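Worked example 2:
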Amino acid sequence: MTPCDRNPHVDGDTRATEDSSLRLEHGDIHVCQDGPRDAPALLLIHGTATSNRSWDALVPLLTTSHRVVRIDLPGHGRSAEPVGRGYEIPEQARTLGTALDRLRVEHAMVVGHSSGGYPATALAEQRPDLVTALALINTGPGMDAFIAPETTAFDPAQWPPTDDQIRRFASTGFREGFHVPQDLVDELRGMTYHSVAAAMRASIAYLNQQPLPERLATLGKPLQVIFGDQDRRWRPSSAADYRVVPKAQIELLPGSGHTPILEDPPRTAALLLAFAERHAAHAPEET
């Protein structure tokens, strides 16, 4: 996988990658944009302990018809740790909303992978005018669906962890035998222990406050749920919990684990594009 360029290309191509940093009140936020800038917007939100680079394999499959916006959550990737603000999910959502306002994105379909589905949902709760539809990829619906890991958590006294420690931790994030990309190993090791631990606690607190399907059922937004049937972090059968959301579209990907955006980009992209096309007619027109 290759990272975004540090600066926009200057050849006038509106499909070129634009890599930028937004100076926000509580810390700089790293943004990567691809695809035609006048196309319908897709916001991709990564999970805990990773960054926008987890979407690299998927982005080229989406940009033929969409403006793809990727934002590193606070304390992740190249975004700064939040100053004077915590990692709580509503705070993360407010940061995302502010960033989209700065980018002049008025409407977007929001896609969250894993715990990225929580700020995606919180953004829809806070900004129903902005979020036209939601797609959640292997996002656990509630803590009762969580599969407790066999390995212990990282030791803050031995931070940063070694490659081997990270690979053991990350292994359940993929189907059995999938090689954890070195780029993702390097990015997790570059984070602070505080960022990793605080982001995980924030996700758990958000779910404990109210399970995700209950939140989504009241929003009235089109919902797509994609789950790899070999997920080793959340029970794949828990995807059915989202059926309480009216007209929710639930898809299981045979042979995929927790991260189909890397394990099976073509099938994942095909599902997202079909869902986006199906609901494009219901999205508000840009003014």
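Residues 193-209 form the longest helix (17 residues). Confidence is low (pLDDT under 50) at residues 1-14.
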